[in-house]
Amino acid sequence: MAALTRLFRSSSHVSLIRRSLFTASASTPLESAPIRSQAYSSSHDTKDRNIQWVFLGCPGVGKGTYASRLSTLLGVPHIATGDLVREELSSSTPLSKHLKEIVNQGKLVSDEIIISLLSKRLEAGEANGESGFILDGFPRTVTQAEILDDVTDIDLVVNLKLPENVLLEKCLGRRICDQCGKNFNVASINVKGENGNPDIKMAPLLPPSHCASKLITRSDDTEVIVKERLRIYNDKSQPVEEFYRARGKLIEFDLPGGIPESWPRLLEALNLDDYDDRRGLKDRRITLYVLRVQAIDRAFRNLERRRFHFRL
Ligand code: AMP
């Protein structure tokens, strides 16, 4: 592991990712004021940059849904490495053939390939004046987490959780509009809570009529492959939770149900619940800036309380 890490540290991909992240940290795009992350001190320069959050969680838990909603709310890009892999798959490069085999078996793409895809995405974002990010699906191995830790400071890691039987049903019910790319779900979930936990109910998330005839299923959302992806998550990705828990950055969030129940509770957990984006704010830029600062400050106060409570 250490040898592999050293290899990545010296590879051009890591220089690329390091350069992208550092430049993004220093830039101040016109439409987005930077956050001064004073609540969190670290060895890297966290001043004058936008939020850098990570979403962890098993396949099908809803990382994409909630990361994308938060990205709209906070004005930072949502970067999902699964989307980067699927973009590559839709091309006809030699790499896409190799990736198809891996993804269709539910396996993880090599750290080197995924870092190369992420580096390119960050570079493109940097060229467009992007600042900060919410990462979804990365890091998925401790090596990836170590590399990320080596190149920049992550402010906060949100670990979304659902029981495995719910995850399986959600993946099997997932549908994507082939045209607009939006995610829907045809599953009607009603799972009895075990060990005193409440029941979990999720209504289907049905598409509007213009998407209904264009729905496709992901090739890796079959029962056999989802079970393999869950096995690989437990083996390779769960240690990443421990990596961030040990660094005091992890917020655990048990999803209470579907989006209507979970979204307000997630905003509450992140202390963003007083934000109402339908208010037609006069000075959206200043308000977003203040909200981002408050979000980071309060999320860390929350984290401190939890750490004390659980004696982490
Ligand atoms: P996802 O949409 O996040 O479920 O990702 C789809 C597939 O892309 C995964 O099953 C992996 O094969 C690959 N993938 C996405 N992110 C990573 C990552 N960080 N490391 C390795 N493989 C990844």
UniProtKB/TrEMBL annotation:
| Signal peptide positions on this chain | none
GO terms, molecular function: AMP kinase activity; ATP binding
Keywords assigned: Kinase, Nucleotide-binding, Transferase
What the entry lists under Gene3D superfamilies is as follows: P-loop containing nucleotide triphosphate hydrolases
Q: What is its EC number?
A: 2.7.4.3
Which catalytic reaction applies to this protein? AMP + ATP = 2 ADP
Quaternary state and partners of this protein?
Answer: Monomer.
- Listed HAMAP family: Adenylate_kinase_Adk
* Similarity comment text for this entry: Belongs to the adenylate kinase family.
Instruction: Give the PANTHER family listed for this entry.
Output: NUCLEOTIDE KINASE
- List the NCBIfam families hit by this protein, alphabetically: adk (TIGR01351)
Task: Indicate what this protein is called per its UniProt record.
Answer: adenylate kinase
